[in-house]
């Protein structure tokens, strides 16, 4: 059992890559918040595409974008850090530029723009985690990763709020928001690149260095596909249930989304630091239990009368957000702790593949289960998540197993 880490704000910024990198993250998140929630609306209103064609193009962009992850992992394992982060931002500049240049009705150009945006969005988390893992170590690294997520969510929320206010300007406003997003990505890339951070695995402290093979993490990766469904619960599942089945006001969905953002921004770091007294694997398994409890809570809430269901769902959503916070604070941190330095990039890339796949398929799974009733949706999610938590808790760390074998072999050698 580890002792609880205490992180001061200045130390947290330093552990996260320094002030310039923190500004780069904030600018990048702000720009992303301006456009990403309204990309579908851009395709429909500005480019005059059909909603199904726009949605398919966006999905294809996300899924095909995942194909870049093996190359990103190898690039990171050659020592690149800030360069990869900057590249993930620059490729999105190309996506925005192509988006602005796409004439109305050209769905394939829109799909190509979505692909560039998808590549950048998929590459960034692994590159960011590798950069933080190079700057910080141990539980300080966990807090730094949590701080980056809180900062990013704050930027996304502010950007989405600004964009919502500007949408009254119609298609011209959407085009202007896209242009500002491209400029924000460009500025963020320049700031990230200026950090000039490069890893030298050979110089890793002896106590942190492990020359073993890349961890397989099969149970962790499979469980992560299910865990990430929680990220789409506030955005997909709850609005769908509240509006189409409970016939509640859309205000409830908006309030839940805002509450989720505020809770993540304010609690991500404190909760991660609080949980540092336990092993990362235990905390990740606990996250699955909390998420399972929230899904069962949603099942119970939707069985109440219509006048009580919406407030009950909103209340349970707080529990779901706490589960999301615990998950987000432990999952990537566990991967960075398990992976030897020389294969950290590939381990993070594989983890991002499971995350991206889960995020890509979860809307389809949720919308397919929802028409069959609350038991089908929430019961299935609860069962799958609890099974995933059990798999995470019982998986044996490869490094621990190998170390144990060496210890056992030493007396006879």
Automatic annotation (TrEMBL):
Membrane-protein topology: Multi-pass membrane protein
Transmembrane helix keyword on record: yes
GO molecular function: transmembrane transporter activity
Domain of life of the native organism: Bacteria
Keywords recorded for this protein, A-Z: Cell membrane, Membrane, Transmembrane, Transmembrane helix, Transport
One Pfam match: MFS_1
Transmembrane spans: 21-43, 49-72, 84-109, 115-138, 150-170, 176-199, 220-242, 254-275, 282-301, 313-339, 351-369, 375-393
GO cellular component terms given for this protein: plasma membrane
Cell compartment(s), UniProt: Cell membrane
Keyword Transcription regulation: no
InterPro entries: MFS (IPR011701), MFS_trans_sf (IPR036259), MFS_Transporters (IPR050171)
Protein name as catalogued: MFS transporter
Organism: Streptomyces bingchenggensis (strain BCW-1)
Organism ancestry: Bacteria, Bacillati, Actinomycetota, Actinomycetes, Kitasatosporales
